[in-house]
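subagent[fold] <- orchestrator: predict structure for attached chain, return tokens only, no commentary.
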Amino acid sequence: MSTVIVDYNMGNLRSVENAFRKIGAPATIESDPERFGRYGRMVLPGVGAFGDAMEHLEATGAHQAIVEFARSGKPLLGICLGMQLLFEKSYEFGEHRGLGLLEGEVVPFDTSKFDHPLKVPHMGWNELFVEGENPLFKGLPEAFYLYFVHSYHVQTTAPSASGKTLYGYWFTSAVQQENIFGLQPHPEKSHNNGLQILRNFIEL
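subagent[fold] -> orchestrator:
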């Protein structure tokens, strides 16, 4: 089953493509939303601003194509900004509507809750603590390190949360709802742990 990496002008595509190639499962970068349905799995990566991303997705028709793909039951993985886009709204530089596939919103780190000074963006290696069952984490321990780069995070009380990370306070760093998966960290930058996650994704 083939994998499509959605190109919506938000960067980081080649490193994701290279990671899939490294595990022997080449993926195709695709910008034409009319072609998305031809693939068996979708990856929505991204680095950049939420509002700009949604504006591009809506202008090109990719918004609806991604929603239809998710509703088809095929596996969909959002990474970093791609995970945040799965939710209802974001407060990054204003208020912006998301894809609405998952319940929750995207908020900035609240530094007033930090018990000691920490830099934002949250950048570097940190632990993801697994909550519940998520097939993406098969073969990994209950807590493991991945690479993060972000200033905003998901806030949700929905049962989709399947991983959490501590940076000043606990925040949701992984989600799953049926065929929809999201990771705030970058598996493509996370060496063996990240490659294991991508292997698990292509086995879905």
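orchestrator: received. Logging for downstream: DSSP finds five helices and 13 strands in the chain. Helices lie at 13-22, 50-60, 62-71, 81-85, 191-202.
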